[in-house]
């Protein structure tokens, strides 16, 4: 069993890393292999809208994207996490999500699609961090990650919103959020243990 967390933050010691580590901890404690991937460590070009993936599940752009998708293909659980930049996910996460257009197919019409992971049994948790005190200031960060995960066929188990977190490590003071993150992680671990 393996659970992969994709981190859209460039801050390696930031709040998103701590939040994702907290979500992964129950699985790691249960002996499930876990890995956190910082998207900023990979070369992921922008989607060009070329439709080269329309007849397969593979993006035709040659960069590090395929390496990450191979990891997702072999994972049983996936966690998507991002800090909030201007009311949504970071540019690293957005570029990755855009490239995941290759993970859906339109067998009949453009209004209906199937996700690559549909009926795969893969489960997901989404997580977002925001420095503001009101969830509305998070904008679309959490809903984008959650809607995206369902669109590609993952079963969304839980979502965690961390507010009031800006300085690196400040999330450690948010005990309720960390408790919620651990509960979400327990859901992942129970699904896959």
Automatic annotation (TrEMBL):
Keywords: Flavoprotein, FMN
GO molecular function terms listed in the Swiss-Prot or TrEMBL record: oxidoreductase activity
Taxonomic superkingdom: Bacteria
Domain NADPH-dependent FMN reductase-like: 1-117
Pfam family, one: FMN_red
Protein name: NADPH-dependent FMN reductase
Origin organism lineage: Bacteria, Pseudomonadati, Thermodesulfobacteriota, Desulfuromonadia, Desulfuromonadales
């Amino acid at each position: 069993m393996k659970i992969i967390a994709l981190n859209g933050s460039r801050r390696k010691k930031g709040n998103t890393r701590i939040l994702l580590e907290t979500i992964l901890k129950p699985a790691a404690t249960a002996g499930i292999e876990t890995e956190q991937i910082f998207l900023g460590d990979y070369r992921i070009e922008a989607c060009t809208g070329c439709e080269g993936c329309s007849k397969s599940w593979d993006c035709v752009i040659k960069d590090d994207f395929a390496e990450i998708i191979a990891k997702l293909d072999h994972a049983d659980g996936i966690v998507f996490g991002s800090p909030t930049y201007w009311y949504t996910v970071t540019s690293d996460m957005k570029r990755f999500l855009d490239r995941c257009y290759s993970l859906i197919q339109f067998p009949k019409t453009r209004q209906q699609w199937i996700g690559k992971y549909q009926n795969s049994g893969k489960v997901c948790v989404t997580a977002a961090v925001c420095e503001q005190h009101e969830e509305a200031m998070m904008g679309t960060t959490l809903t984008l990650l959650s809607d995206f995960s369902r669109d590609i066929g993952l079963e969304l188990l839980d979502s965690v919103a961390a507010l009031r977190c800006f300085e690196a490590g400040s999330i450690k003071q948010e005990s309720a959020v960390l408790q919620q993150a651990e509960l979400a992680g327990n859901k992942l671990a129970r699904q896959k243990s």
